[in-house]
Amino acid sequence: MAGTASPGVVWVLIEYRGGWPPNGFEGLDLAAGTQALVLSAARTARARVLLVRRPGPRRRHGPSRWAILRHQSSGAYQQLWGTWDRDEDLAEIVPALASPGKRGLPPVILICAHGQHDPCCAVRGRPVGRALSDRWPELVWECSHVGGDRFAATAVVAPDGVYYGGLDAESSVATIEDHFGGRIRAEYLRGYTDLFPPQQAAVAAVLGHFGPAGRNDYQVTETVREGEHWHIHITGRPPHPARIEVELQSRRSPPRQLTCRGPAAGSVIVYEPTSVRRT
Question: pTM here?
Answer without folding.
Answer: 0.93
